[in-house]
Amino acid sequence: MKIDRLVSIIMILLEKERIGAQELADIFEVSPRTIYRDIDTINMAGIPVRSTSGVGGGFEIMKKYKIDKKVFSTADLSAILMGLSSLSNMIRGDELVNALAKVKSFIPADRAKDIELKANQVYIDLSPWMGNGNIQPFLEIIKTALQENRLLSFEYTDRYGNKTARTAEPYQLVLKSSHWYWQGYCLKRNDYRLFKLSRTSNLQIQEEAFTPRDYQKPTLDFTYILAIMQTKIKIRIHKSVIDRVLDFCAYEHFSPDGNEHYIVSFPFIENEYYYNILFSFGDKCECLEPLYIRSEMKRRIHDMATIYES
User: Fold this and answer.
1) What is the pLDDT of residue 67?
2) Closest CA to 35 of 45, 47, 22
3) Which positions fall inside the HTH deoR-type domain (predicted)?
4) Contact, 270 vs 295, CB < 8 A?
5) Dist CA 29 CA 23 (whole Å)
6) CA atoms 121, 126, 131, 133: torsion sign
7) pLDDT tens for residues 26-79?
8) Which among 237, 193, 5 has a CA at the least distance from the CA of 99?
9) Rounded to whole angstroms, how far apart are CA atoms 216 and 285?
10) Long-range CB contacts (< 8 A, 24+ apart) of 32-41?
């Protein structure tokens, strides 16, 4: 994985006087272009790496950093350890174990206890309480396909229940709002698609490798779009569902209504997803305004009741 490679490159640069891009590319079995991108990332992280051209040229960390090898502060090492430990809970592999061992090798003995304490102050567990048993093995399959640039074949079920056979070039794993997705170039649609892992089935790595194309990152921040699309509706909720309603709006939008209930200004878009959110609160939630949404809720409840009456 990239974090493992970046840490390893930093360690090599600390130990060697100078090393060329091609030599690094051969060590990590990637292209020189990838190495140049990694060096840019290391520079942006605040570690000054300079390059020299010509015979004997290559990359090197500036001398003042070579003299004092305390490149990472206590906060830096704690953050790296916390991130790698959290990731290893969900995506297992020798590279993560190796990366953790390499990062720990940077820790001076006199700072080990302090860094371990700070690294354990935040614990991120990405594994689900329950649910789709395919998530863990599918993450491993996608991770392998990403590393080896191999095609993935699978079946995908859309939100309406329609299933199609697909083949795609994988480019990125995404964890968004507690759900795993993966971004790939779908050969059936001839375009990039963001696939939800829980809707993916029969996932298999193909023997055929692919040449990576210019990658287009998925759009994951819809804050501006939602601000335009959302309207505020007024709902009355029982105090027993406060924690769930707080997943969608801040407590500043709550007003007490007696001892047991609250009036909430709730962000809403008139579509299936948002109606289902309201229904998920069951009889602990009542839509008060606007009238047309209240009427639509009543119609949908009647249709559900009709199913059970028959």
Assistant:
1) 42
2) 22
3) 2-57
4) no
5) 10
6) negative
7) 888 888 888 888 888 888 877 788 888 777 788 888 776 644 445 567 677 777
8) 5
9) 41
10) 35/9, 38/2, 38/5, 38/6, 38/9, 39/9, 41/6
